[in-house]
Amino acid sequence: MLAKRIPVQDLRPGMYIHKLGGSWLKHPFLRGSFLLTDPADIRAIMEAGIREVWIKSTAGCPRPEGRSEAPPDAPEAPALTGMSPPVETCDSTSPMASEVARAKDICLSAKGQIVEMFNEARLGKAIDPNATLPLVDEIASSIERHPIALLSVARLKTHDDYTYLHSVAVCALMLSLARQLRLSEEHTRLAGIGGLMHDLGKAAMPLDVLNKPGKLTDAEFEIMKGHPAAGAELLRAGGAAPEVQEIALYHHEKMNGQGYPHGLAGNEIPLLARMGAICDVYDAVTSQRAYKEPWNPAGAMRQMASWDGHFDKVLFNAFVKSVGIYPVGSLVRLASQRLAVVTEPGQDSLLRPTVRVFFSLLDNEPIPMHLLDLGAPCCEDSIIGPEDENRWHFRHLDDMCLWLK
Ligand SMILES: [Fe+2]
């Protein structure tokens, strides 16, 4: 399709600008080609002194973004103390946004149930694992409707919410992984129940150690190492399936035999427990804790992939497929030297999710936020890699990834 040159007076929203006349350094747009959607942009083009533009047909062509010719070694921006909140409003009609609302309700009702379960366990009462089935089914249905919404909500836990939302998150991650592995209905459900109850044994741990805000001493850590066996015993007493007991008992084992409580290695560790180890660690490291900042989800994926001997590699690869190389909520650096947050997994490629672009590294300042589908055929931008969010201290990344006000 050849570009057609027209005077700026003939520009209308909906036209695809292929090139702006004059030097791009002088105009206010990040790149010279883009889909014209805002009449204010026409005024800005005129005010920049541009007289002519080249346009192309927009048929079937999503908005291209980014400036892929940007130098990869652009100067580092200094840490910021914060930035403006998102300017876009919540699109309650998007599948993600509507499921996020339902997922919040599920997490809220889960809180009561899980807190009660832990309280009863603390009192020495037997826990009936079947009582959690409706909740596990609700979590499974949410994942069925949208694979990422509930995970995105459960990831945003505060220190106070950690125990119960960690249970919900591990349950959801286990269900996603079980689906990815095409496990039977029965085993998928057992994986979900085991995910929800994997840390039940913490109810048997001394409260001063369990609730200690800082890092544990070696002696305290030795005490906490008792929680897998304590949890498995509580579940056995309540009549839980052996697979659910095994998730509780073995979720801290490692493939190289250096885990606990029994130092099992490789396939000595039951399948669902090997899955539990991956889901438990991923949610723990990407969550805010009293003694540490959360890891960027994409950075966590990289780190975990580099831990030789810790996880079952085949299962870990399936886990990456179920959650994404750049999971929702990841802060990423684009080839156009902009920062963005991942909002939806890629449809066709794990490397090309949809992102919300919000910061220019070249100008070292926020830019108007907008969504960018990196998998769109006409998109010229791409992800260079995960960005360490602790270096930046942006305050609204989570709102951005959930597309909330
Ligand atoms: Fe644990």
Automatic annotation (TrEMBL):
InterPro entries: DUF3391, HD/PDEase_dom, HD_GYP_dom, HDIG_dom. It comes from the Bacteria. GO terms for molecular function: phosphoric diester hydrolase activity. Residues 139-335 form the HD-GYP domain. SUPFAM superfamilies: HD-domain/PDEase-like. Pfam families: DUF3391, HD_5. Residues 61-95 are annotated as: Disordered. This is DUF3391 domain-containing protein. It comes from Microvirgula aerodenitrificans.
